Known about the structure:
Order of helices and strands: HEHHEEHHHHHH
Shape: globular
Strand content: under 5%
Distance between the termini: 39 Å
Number of strands: 3
Number of helices: 9
Amino acid sequence: MSGSDIRSRDGDAGARIADQVREGIVRGIFPPGTRIRQEDLAEQFGASRVPVREAIRQLEYEGLITVVPNAGAWVARLTLAECEEIYRMRERLEPLLLGYSAPLLTGEAIAELDALATRISEVGADTDAFLQLDAEFHLRSYRAARTAHLGELVGRLWNATAPYRRAYVSSWAEESRRIAHEEHHLIVAALQDGDTEEAERVLAGHIRRTRRQLARSPEIFASDPLT
């Protein structure tokens, strides 16, 4: 096997490991502050240290892991102020991304968003199902955008706040769920009408409301890490 083949194999393994750990962070399996040990990942995935290091570097680049030289790696933690800053970025960037995407969404794609909005409203208090479908709804609505950097940046911002969004959604009262469902349907209705400006407006308010409610839940950011 040539050197290039080995590098390709390690790169593929590193990407697979990064995907699995990323999913674990987003789904709350690895909460903020969790220690990420290279030897544990190598054993779990039956890999050498090389792809594990590649995976950790990728996740560090995405802001999901914090690496301390000569100490180790941990799932990144956010303060309330940091989370609020990210939500302010999302509040401005995601409507922009939707503005790129909306004119290019097909009727079939909008119908799929409509079906997703209905499914989201039917999951009740199932936090895992809501978060999975909610992410699918929003990221699908951006999928048609032809941008060089904006889509990737928005994805990184989503991942960075995922553990805190999970804690927030799990504490929702029924009224909060109802409002979120209505906003999803309003976004779909605006897209169906070809009113991109209205879809952007509803989306910005949707994100802003979450940011304000998170600011009233400082206990989410003060919990002890599970190491």
